[in-house]
Each structure stands twice: as C-alpha cells, then as structure tokens.
Amino acid sequence: MATTVEAVTRVVALLTEIDGLTVFEGTVPKDPPRDAEGRVKPYVCVYMGSGETRNTRYGYKPRDLSLPIWVTCSAGTPRGANWAVDKVRPVLNGVRLFATPEDPRLGDSRLREVTENVALREDRDIPTDLRWFLPMQYRFATTIS
Questions:
Q1: Beta bridge mates, 143
Q2: Which domain of life is it from (predicted)?
Q3: Of 96, 81, 136, 82, whose CA–CA distance to 113 is shortest?
Q4: What's CA 145's distance to the chain center, in Å?
Q5: Which pLDDT tens digit goes with each residue over 15-71?
Q6: Range of the domain at 95
Q7: Torsion angle (degrees, nearest 10) of CA 31, 37, 42, 47
Q8: Which is higher by pLDDT, 142 or 73?
Q9: Could you give the 3-state DSSP secondary structure of residue 69?
Q10: Whole-angstrom distance, CA of residue 107 vs CA of residue 104
Q11: Cα dist. 142→7, 52, 98, 100, 139 in Å?
C-alpha cells in the first residue's frame, strides 16, 4: 500500500537530483540560497494533499487513492522560476512512483501534470526580497488494498 509520506518522499528524492535546484518540503526558510548578485536562486517547494479514496464498485470499500502534489517553482527572477519549471516537468511528468510492470498491485501510480494555465506571479508575501513563482500540480492514483 502506498502512502502520502512515501509519495512525497519519492517526489522530493526525484527533484533533489536536479542540478542547481534546491528542494524544500512544505515550507521555505526566510533566507534561501542566493546567487553572487544576491538574488534568490531557483528552488521548489513540494506540498502534498491528503488525497481522496475512490470506490470502483457500489457498496465496496474504497480501493483506489488519488493524491495531489503541488510543486511551486520559485526564484528571484522570472527567468529563474521558468527555469525551475523547465527542469521539474520532464523529471516528474509521467514518472511511475511505485508500481512496476512486474508488480502491478499498486496501480498505475504515474504522476500526471494537471496544472491549469497559470501566470508567473510575484510573491508579495515576502517583504524582504523579490521572488517570482509558478505553481504546478500533479496527481497520481494508486491502489490501497
């Protein structure tokens, strides 16, 4: 059985392999890494949702779990945030988190990007420095029983 903790652990591990990208889980420190000019370097923050169970047959206990994962790509410049998106997308989209062809019990469990068309935004919640961000959303389904 796959859990939300296992899923976010796997996603963070995959993203950590991207050279030049810092990965945070759930929160970003007040002073993330900076470049030589003092701008915030590209980073991502991963947020996991609680998901939802789905029943494939009326009256039976739920067998399938659908989990959302948000990955916010940020940087001190708009290009830096877009660079992060360009690095994250090929690493996560379509990756199989758990199941293998030899062990299909955990369902497909491939991450699918479900991001709606979102615009690059300035993060105005941080008064100390300029940051730009682009949220991405992924979802995967897996069997829980």
A1: 64
A2: Bacteria
A3: 136
A4: 25
A5: 999 999 999 999 998 889 999 999 999 999 999 887 777 665 665 555 667 788 999
A6: 4-143
A7: 20
A8: 73
A9: strand
A10: 6
A11: 10, 11, 8, 12, 10
In the chain, the amino acid numbered 115 is T
Cα-only R_g, the chain: 17
User: What is the structure's pLDDT at 78?
Assistant: 96
Distances, alpha carbon 132 to alpha carbons 43, 128, 135, 137, in Å: 11, 13, 10, 17
Total domains in the fold of the chain: 1
- Both structure tokens of 132: 């730009």
Q: pTM of the full predicted structure?
A: 0.84
Running DSSP on this structure, what letter comes out for residue 10? H
The CA distance from 93 to 75, in Å, is: 21
Beta-ladder partners of 106: none
Report the CATH number at residue 76: 3.30.2000.10
Q: Is the dihedral of CA 23, 84, 71, 18 positive or negative?
A: negative
Tokens of 50: 């609680």
- In angstroms, the CA 51 to CA 58 distance is 20
